UniProtKB/TrEMBL annotation:
UniProt similarity note: Belongs to the metallo-dependent hydrolases superfamily. HutI family.
Pathway connected to this protein: Amino-acid degradation; L-histidine degradation into L-glutamate; N-formimidoyl-L-glutamate from L-histidine: step 3/3
Residues engaged in binding Zn(2+): H72, H74, H242, D317
Cofactor, free-text remark: Binds 1 zinc or iron ion per subunit.
Protein name as it appears in the record: Imidazolonepropionase
Residue positions binding Fe(3+): H72, H74, H242, D317
Cofactors required: Zn(2+); Fe(3+)
Name of encoding gene: hutI
Enzyme Commission designation: 3.5.2.7
Enzyme class: hydrolase
C-alpha cells in the first residue's frame, strides 16, 4: 500500500503557468498541493499520488500564475503632484520643475508634514489596488523624507503595512534620492551624513532590506553613489540604483560593479552597461509608467539585455511624480507596447525576475516546490491575456501562503 501524503490543500482545475526558468513552462490540467504555506508538490493532476488534504479547490478552468511582485515602488508619500502633471502637459520639463524646487522636493515637504498614521492610510489605499490584482510581494522605498527622522518614518510605515496586510514587503533606504534644501550646495556633506550616521542607524533599527540611490545629473553623481554603496556594503546591505533614467552616467555599470541586485529605469543604458550587468547578475528593472508619463522618447536597450542574458523585471514605480500607477498589470501591457517585451517576458518581469531584483527568488517568483504558496487564479484562456487587457480590473483569486486572501 503506497503511503498517503498529508497536505493542507490541493488546488486543481487550471493550467499552471509556473514561470520556471522565466518561461511560461505551462502544465495543463495541473495540481498544486500546499503544506504549511508552501508548495509541497505540483505537476499534472494525473500524477498526484495518494494523499489526504483538508481542503480541495477545483478552480474550474483558467490559469494559475505565481503571485505578482512589484519590485520598485515609492508607495509611501504625502500629497500628490497633479499640478505638476498639468505643468508638464503644458510643456515644462521634469528637470525644469525639479530645478525650480518642485518635483521630488515638493513631495518631500508634504511627506515631512504628514504624520505616520496619515501616511499609512494613504499608502493603504494604493496598496489595496495593487493587491486586488494579484500582487503578493512589493518593494517600498523611503526617499521623500531626507531627514533621518522622516526617512525612518517612511520605513516604519512600510513595516506597519506588512504587519497589517497579507503581503510581503521589502524596504529600500533611498536617502540619496534628492538633495534636501538644508544641504543646498553641500551635496558631499549630505552624502557623508548618509554614510556615517543615517545608514548605520537605519541598519541598526532593522528598517532597510536594501539601499537605493538616484544617480542622475539632477540628483547624485557616480562618485557620490559610490560612497553610499561602499558604506552600505560595509553594513552588509544589498544595493539597488535608479540609473540612466534621464541621461547616461554609467550608474548601471557602477551598480553592477558593486554586485547590486538591480539597476532601474535604464532608458539611457548602453550595450556596455548591459554587458556589465550580465556579468554581475544585476537585474534590469524597467519602469514603463515613468517612461510614459515623462513622454520619454529614448527606450531601454531591451535587445542588448536580451542578447546579454540580463534578467528584465517590470515594476510600477508607483510614485506621485513620474508614475502615479496603481496597477502592475497595466505595466505588463506598457512593457509590451512601449518596450517591445513579449507577454512572456513581461510576466517573468513581474514574477521570477522581480523576485531576483529583490533577492527573494529562493522563496517566491515561480511555482516551484518549497517556495511560498503565493499564487493567483485568473479565469482567462491564455497567459498573454494578462498583458493584453488594457486597464480595468481582471477578476482573480489570490492565494497568499496557502490561504485565499
Ligand atoms: O523612480 N527617479 C527618481 N525617482 C522617482 C521619481 C520620484 C518623483 O518624481 O517623485 C522615479 O521615477
Ligand atoms: Fe523610482
Amino acid at each position: 500500500m503506497p503511503v498517503s501524503v498529508q497536505y493542507d490543500s490541493v488546488w486543481t482545475g487550471a493550467t499552471l503557468v509556473t514561470l520556471q526558468e522565466g518561461r511560461y513552462s505551462a502544465i495543463p490540467d495541473g495540481a498544486i498541493a500546499v503544506r504549511d504555506g508552501r508548495i509541497a508538490w505540483l505537476g499534472p493532476r494525473q500524477a498526484l499520488g495518494p494523499h489526504d488534504a483538508r481542503e480541495y479547490q477545483d478552480v474550474g478552468g483558467g490559469i494559475i500564475t505565481p503571485g505578482l511582485i512589484d519590485c520598485h515602488t515609492h508607495l509611501v508619500f504625502g500629497g500628490d503632484r497633479s499640478r505638476e502633471f498639468e505643468q508638464r502637459l503644458s510643456g515644462v520639463s521634469y528637470s525644469e520643475i525639479a530645478a525650480a524646487g518642485g518635483g521630488i522636493l515638493s513631495t518631500v515637504r508634504a511627506t515631512r508634514d504628514a504624520d505616520e498614521d496619515h501616511l499609512l492610510a494613504a499608502a493603504e489605499q494604493r496598496l489595496a489596488l495593487l493587491m486586488a490584482e494579484g500582487v503578493t510581494c512589493i518593494e517600498i522605498k523611503s526617499g521623500y523624507g531626507l531627514t533621518l527622522d522622516s526617512e525612518m518614518k517612511m520605513l516604519r510605515v512600510a513595516r506597519r503595512l506588512a504587519e497589517r496586510h497579507p503581503i510581503d514587503i521589502k524596504t529600500s533606504f533611498l536617502a540619496a534620492h534628492a538633495l534636501p534644501p538644508e544641504y543646498h550646495g553641500r551635496a558631499d556633506d549630505y552624502i557623508t551624513l548618509i554614510c556615517e550616521e543615517w545608514l548605520p542607524a537605519v541598519a541598526a533599527a532593522g528598517l532597510a532590506d536594501a539601499v537605493d540611490g538616484f544617480c542622475e545629473h539632477l540628483a547624485f553623481s557616480p562618485a557620490q553613489i559610490t560612497r553610499v554603496f561602499e558604506a552600505a556594503t560595509r553594513l552588509g546591505l544589498p544595493l539597488k540604483l535608479h540609473a540612466e533614467q534621464l541621461s547616461s552616467l554609467g550608474g548601471s555599470t557602477l551598480a553592477a560593479r558593486f554586485g547590486a541586485l538591480s539597476a532601474d529605469h535604464l532608458e539611457y543604458a548602453t550595450a556596455d552597461d548591459a554587458r556589465a550587468m550580465a556579468a554581475a547578475g544585476t537585474v534590469a528593472v524597467l519602469l514603463p509608467g515613468a517612461c510614459y508619463l515623462l513622454r520619454e522618447s529614448q527606450m531601454p536597450p531591451v535587445a542588448h539585455f536580451r542578447q546579454q542574458g540580463v534578467k528584465m523585471a517590470l515594476a510600477s514605480d508607483s510614485n506621485p511624480g513620474t508614475s502615479p500607477a496603481c496597477s502592475l498589470r497595466l505595466m505588463l501591457n506598457m512593457g509590451c507596447t512601449l518596450f517591445h517585451l513579449t507577454p512572456e517576458e513581461a510576466l517573468a518581469g513581474v514574477t521570477l525576475h522581480a523576485a531576483h531584483a529583490l533577492g527573494v527568488a529562493p522563496e517566491q517568483g515561480s511555482l516551484a516546490v518549497g517556495k511560498w504558496a503565493n499564487f493567483v487564479h485568473w479565469p482567462v484562456a491564455a497567459p498573454a491575456e494578462l498583458a493584453y487587457w488594457l486597464g480595468g480590473q481582471l477578476p482573480c483569486t489570490v492565494i497568499y501562503r496557502g490561504r485565499r486572501r
